Amino acid sequence: MSFVAVDLGATNVRVAIGDKKGIKKKSSEKTDKNNGPEGIVKQIIRMIKILKPHPEAVGIGSIGPIDINSGKIINTPNLPFKEIALIGPLSEVLGTDVKLLNDCSAGVLGEYFFGAGKGIKNQVYLTFSTGLGCGVIIDGHLLCGKDGNAHEVGHITIDSNSELECGCGCFGHWEAYSSGNGLPKFVKMLSLKNNFKKTYQNSFNVENINSEKLFKMAKENHPFGLKVIEELGKINAQGFGDIVNIYDPELITVGGSIAINNSDLILRPIIQGIDKHLINRKPRIIITPLGEDIILYGALALATEMKMD
Ligand SMILES: [Zn+2]
Predict the structure, then answer these.
(1) What pLDDT sits at residue 204?
(2) Considering the domain 3-109+293-303, what is its CATH architecture?
(3) Which among 6, 43, 81, 309 has most CB atoms closer than 10 A?
(4) Distance 64 CA to ligand 1 centre (A)
């Protein structure tokens, strides 16, 4: 029996087939943003049919926010569509059971069943990607919330006086600083501050900056790149401190392309700077061993109905 796992992100759609033992085959494409919500659904169906025309069941880990009851993505800040219906059209066309979770909720399930968190009853998975999000298992239960968005940590307020606008329209959210979408605007904001102008003037061009270029600058010991990473590290340490104080996890695994490709630059400032924000005991904080497949693993656990002990 083969099941299908789908990781629907703002940048990539990834599809895999597998079973309770793991992933057998997978494919990946850039997310089709040019043909409306239906274009994304058609893309997923086409990708599934290439791998497995008649799957037993489908599990989806999707960008949020979602409405878990109606099976839709609602008002996501990272795609230009108000609503994307997933479960309805997918189950109709594929003629099979389709289950949906927020992508990071799927991620933490993947970690629990296939990754570094096997059997750990209190754990968090956090991703630094186009957006920023986390999934939480506490006391052996996956937290979902009334609509399936129990922990949109990317949208906790880091600075209530901030001029940085988040993709969701609010100001000062964590995601506005640390996500792939937010980072370029954060860098530009820093570059306009007087002390930055004085110290780093003419040593960099912020116009075409993106997370890839920024981390490259830091790896090459460019002073401005290093300074931005230092400032980013303080914000991330604060965000991780909030997570530990709220959920009291034993393990936090970190994923998403930004963290996976820059593990030391992302993790070190968090581990070094988190203590001053903590009331709870510090957990282990590591990069997920499942890499970019973590959401697929979680979606597979969802499709195959794996149960926590
Ligand atoms: Zn926000």
Answers:
(1) 73
(2) 2-Layer Sandwich (3.30)
(3) 6
(4) 12
119-288, CATH topology level = Nucleotidyltransferase; domain 5 (3.30.420)
Model confidence pLDDT, tens digit, residues 275-298:
999 999 999 999 999 999 999 999
Rounded to the nearest whole angstrom, what is the distance from the C-alpha of residue 157 to the centroid of ligand 1? 8
Domain limits, CATH 3.30.420.40, in the chain: 3-109+293-303, 119-288
Banded model confidence at residue 78, pLDDT cuts 50, 70, 90: confident
Nearest CA to 176 out of 197, 192, 160, 191 is that of 160
Distance 183 CA to ligand 1 centre (A): 13
> Taking each helix axis from N to C terminus, what angle separates 36-51 and 87-94, rounded to the nearest 10 degrees?
40
Q: What are the tens digits of pLDDT across the range 112-141?
A: 999 999 999 999 999 999 899 999 999 999
What's the CA gap between 247 and 272, in Å, rounded? 20
Cα 135 to ligand 1 centroid, rounded to whole Å: 17
Encoded tokens for 132: 């920023």
**How many Å lie between the centroid of ligand 1 and the Cα of residue 156?**
7
Q: Which residue type occupies 147?
A: D
**Average pLDDT score over residue span 203-227:** 89
